[in-house]
Every structure is written in C-alpha cells, then in structure tokens.
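Here's a chain:
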Amino acid sequence: MPENKHILIVEDDPEVSEVVAACLEYGNFQTSVTSSGQAALNMIADTDIDLCIVDLGLPDMDGLTLTREIKSRTNIGIIILSGRGETTERIIGLEVGADDYLGKPFEPRELLARVRSVIRRTESNESPPTKDIPDGSQHTKSGTYIFEGWQVDLSAFDVVDPDGNHPQLSSGEFNLLQAFMEHPNRILSRDQLLDLVHGDNTPAFDRSIDVQITRLRKKIEQDPKAPKFIKTIRNRGYMFTPKVSRA
C-alpha cells in the first residue's frame, strides 16, 4: 500500500486526536483533524480523503449520523473510534456504513493495522479481489453480470437497476454481491462469504456478514423484509436465487 494516505480524524477531545494523529503519522499517513461533523463533511467535499476516523460523541451531530452522511456521498473508509463499547453500538455503526469499530482505549499498533486493512478493502472498489473457495471457483474482477434486469460491471464498479438507476454500494457490499453472483443457487456459509468478501482482513465483528447482507438487501431488494434475491437458509447460510448470466 502506498503510504502518505490522507486520514481525517473527527474527534472533539484534543488529547485523543493528538494521540491518534501521532500514531498515524508514525505509520507515514498524512492526517487532518476536525472537531465537528459539519467541518468534516466540508473537508471531505473539498479534499481528497482516503479514510475517516470518527468519534461518536461530537458537539454538532452524532458520529453515527456523520457516518451515514459520509457513506451517502462517498465510498471512503470509516473507522468508528469510541468509548462506547456496547455490542449494540458496534452493530449500529456497521449498519449505517462504518467499515470497522475500535473502542477506547486502543493499542496504537491495532489502530494502524485496522486503518491499513480498511484502506486495502476500500481500494478494492476499482478492482475487487480475486479469491478461491473450496470448490475451486474463482472470484473474478472483470466482466458484467446480469440478473433480473440488473447489470453489474465489475471493472467499472457500477451497478444499474432495471429502471436505469445506479445504487451506491460500499466496497464490502459490492464484493458481497459479486460473491453471490458468481455462486448463484448455492448455499454459502458465513465463513465462505467472509473469506470471499474480506479475505485475510478479519472484520472486527464476527457477525458483520449479516449486517452487510441487511445493507445490501436494502439496496437491491424491492422488499428487504421479504427478499427474493438473497434468501436466508436457516442454520446454513445464504443463497442467491436469481438466474445469473455474463454479458
């Protein structure tokens, strides 16, 4: 990974932001710091940012709201850094689009490792990774898939629905959809999906695949509560049921 990636730290505690910045700069990252959500949104609009580290307790907006806003506008990576360690907060953070969640206090080496991991995953926007699963099928990174009027261009990282709209998928959601399209009408366990989507970059929350599927359903299913594309197979995993073809 090229160093000098630009990390935006959104934190209203000067002592914490100073520690985070020092840790990232030690890892050869460029850093900027802001203490408010609106200032962060303005900076993202005007500056090339590769990843945001967001605190949940901001003076002008909740960090979860900020995360949702950022993900609605861009596909840059987001790590939530918070003293709120409850599982519910972690799940909500992932549901609104965060790529990872790290509690305070944190180990500097762990923060650096997570930052590098999220950047690697978000960089896959341009070239989704190639992975193998046990039957030897290959996770390709070019071509166009078609199902039920949807078109998914892997090389352009573009999704078009039957009405011609372009729903915005995060890198994780796109790679998850790709995994399903390459293995239609086959039950995929959580472990297989985690391997296809994340590879060696283990998620911070071991049920994150369920969260990503919930988010993906909201973007491709007509009724996410009664999905017709991504079926849950009780106690076994998930199945992508449409007929899939290659263009």
Observations:
- The radius of gyration is 18 Å.
- Confidence is low (pLDDT under 50) at residues 126-138.
